[in-house]
Amino acid sequence: MKKFRIGTDDFKEFIEDGGYFVDKSLLIRDIIEGNKVTLIPRPRRFGKTLNMTMLRYFFERSEESRSYLFENCAIANYPDYVQHQGQYPVIYISLKDLKRDSYEHFIEATRVEIGSLYKNFAEVQPVLSDGSRERFLRIIMEEATLNDLYSSLKDLITHCHQYYKKPVIVLIDEYDTPMIEAFSHGYYDKMAGFMRSWLGAGLKPEYGQVLFRAVVTGILRIAKESIFSDLNNLDVASPLMIGPYADKFGFTDPELSLILSAFQAEDHAAIIRDWYNGYSFGGHTIYNPWSVISYIQAIPNPPGPKWLNTSSNALVYEELEAGGLEIKRDLEVLLAGEELRYPLSENITFTDIGRNTVNIWSLLYYSGYLKAEDPQSDLRGRITYRLSIPNREISYAYEHFIESLYRNTEGGLDSLLNSFLGKRPILQIGPVLQDLTRDLVSMYDLAKLPEAVFHAFVLGLLANLRTVYEIRSNAEAGFGRADILMIPRTRDYPIAYIIEFKTTDGRRNTEISSKALGQIKKQEYEAALSNAGIPDDLIVRLAIILQGKEVRVETG
Questions:
Q1: Residue ranges of the AAA-ATPase-like domain (predicted)?
Q2: In 3-state terms, what secondary structure has residue 535?
Q3: What is the pTM of this model?
């Protein structure tokens, strides 16, 4: 029985254990043909570590031959590239475990991590000068000074080249993990200074033949001025770019067909496409590999969020929650299943994420929460992209975000949803909405565009019902546009809803309610529901009236 070996991201262990390998070995060819230093940003769990360890076992010099690991791989058909196998000293380090709550604790952990790395190259000591040997031993003994750590990558590259008489390959996996943690815990500037010194000193272009290739992976491309200011030899293999790396992370359509055939799961293709497809890297349709693997291994169990449960979504949720009015209105568009168009920044500046809308959407894209397609130049010459939610799994992520906002409103959200599901009287949504609005909606935002902000707020709440309702925002209906239409997806919940929002200064409450309900009838918004086969007696018309932070709901 074939197995994917979920959780095994060491290539050698994976192959020796008989894991089903989706062949990405031509990445080796791309690296050999590529730039001196390459940064490859991709979302988490998209195969970065497995690919990096594959590169390690291919290039790394060792006493025993490792050619058997690649006998059945595509790279074996390219003898010019196979000549590079086992020829280089390889410095491999992953920073994924260097997440600490303070800069001091990060430095302590880094002493241990780099000390362990140096121990792998203890044999180089005979060629070192006395001063270099003293620093080498301090690092091995985990007694490195801060200056020792700053220069540790550069020094190790130099030592390896000096001893082995070969150019060096450097592989740094998940370089931005400690950066993200530093941002969350308030020591980002110190961390940026360390990484700028450590990476900049080690990967500078003037090393010439000392460095053969360096590959750096992570989720984000952090702004060059923050980290990579000294690396004018850096090539960034952005997922937005057409190029050789575009199909090397995640599963393509042809690869998925082979997987489904191998596991006799061809009849699950539509489910996988609905739940886990939707990414677009360099023009390739890409499936989330972790989710596909997890689903196939769990057959006959039903689909569900797989990737979302593998790591914290705290940074994404924090930035969405802190976003201003524009973010809230754009979320309304996404939650309605519609598209946005924005430029994306390939240089994330953490300190500006919350103050720059482009940075928030860029963070969401690079983290795997958005799909970007159809690049076009706007009037200012910027490249903009059509942004949308990739698939059903990521829809759950946004729903989880909404739930996280209301986790302290005990019973409030459930009561609201139960009213729409017919488990509570429909007019009880008035008091429930009142409580949620009082506790969660900012008067600062309401003062600017009260109806639009409240519309987005309610739409976010209703997103939790997307599995049983098709929810349309500002949808064409009859002779106008309905604020919200809720069309049943299942016979279990047959009631359809038309919702119209109005704001008032409080002087004509009854008149405003009548106007809202009258607008629904006059514009014949129910036509969209009738066309969907819903009889009039199963259509509920709601007027939701907002006065400051006071909410009133009427039906008619």
A1: 5-228
A2: coil
A3: 0.80
